[in-house]
């Protein structure tokens, strides 16, 4: 029997429009989660030790590390003039957005994701393979986070 086609088998378009919406808290105290590799990448980029980076920029809560927010505005500390100031070293969840496994359903994509993110349906066409590779990377990062001390 032929394999049923994925709803995104023709690919999905996404191009960041620089809205900064995914860099602003939607009410949660911390919203940019970091696995150990994310923290190491950041430390290297900022030329400080892992320990320094963790102490200075992270909060550990409910078993997970996340980036501190700008207290007044609930924005990621690294959002400057609506742009990511650490683009090269941005964490996995920022690199894999919007191809997160939990929103990769036709329903969520057309409604929640499209309503939230102005980049949906614009610009670059991501192939099914590229989408799955990014979703897999995000899944691995989440699984890695679950195991870290
Ligand atoms: S690290 Fe960069 S892309 Fe990620 S939330 Fe912060 S400002 Fe946005």
Show the helix and strand layout:
Elements: E1 12-14, E2 33-34, H1 36-46, H2 50-57, E3 58-61, E4 64-67, E5 69-70, E6 75-76, E7 79-80, E8 83-84, H3 92-96, H4 106-116, E9 120-126, H5 128-147
Antiparallel strand pairs: 1-9, 2-4, 3-4, 5-6, 7-8
Helix pairs in contact: 1-2
The protein binds iron/sulfur cluster.
Descriptive report:
The protein is of the alpha+beta class and 149 residues long. It has one domain. Helix content is 37%, strand content 19%. It contains five helices and nine strands; from the N terminus they run ββααββββββααβα. It has helices spanning 36-46, 50-57, 92-96, 106-116, 128-147; strands at residues 12-14, 33-34, 58-61, 64-67, 69-70, 75-76, 79-80, 83-84, 120-126. It has a three-stranded antiparallel beta sheet. It has a two-stranded antiparallel ribbon with strand order 1-9. A hairpin with a 2-residue loop joins strand 3 (58-61) and strand 4. The longest helix has 20 residues, at 128-147. The model has no long low-confidence stretch (mean pLDDT 90). The structure holds iron/sulfur cluster. Iron/sulfur cluster binds at residues 23, 32, 76, 78-79, 84, 86, 90-91, 94.
Keywords:
globular, 149 residues, binds iron/sulfur cluster, alpha+beta, two-stranded antiparallel sheet, three-stranded antiparallel sheet, 37% helix
């Amino acid at each position: 029997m032929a394999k049923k086609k994925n709803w995104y088998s023709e690919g999905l378009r996404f191009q960041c429009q620089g809205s900064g919406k995914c860099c602003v808290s939607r009410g949660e105290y911390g919203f940019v989660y970091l696995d150990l590799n994310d923290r190491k990448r950041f430390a290297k980029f900022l030329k400080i030790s892992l320990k320094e980076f963790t102490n200075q920029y992270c909060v550990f809560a409910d078993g997970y590390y996340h980036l501190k927010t700008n207290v007044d505005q609930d924005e990621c500390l690294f959002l400057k003039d609506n742009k990511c100031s650490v683009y090269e070293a941005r964490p996995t969840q920022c690199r894999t957005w919007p191809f997160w496994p939990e929103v990769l359903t036709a329903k969520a994509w057309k409604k929640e994701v499209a309503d939230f993110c102005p980049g949906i349906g614009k610009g670059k066409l991501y192939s099914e393979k590229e989408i799955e590779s990014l979703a897999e990377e995000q899944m691995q990062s989440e699984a890695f986070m679950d195991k870290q001390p």
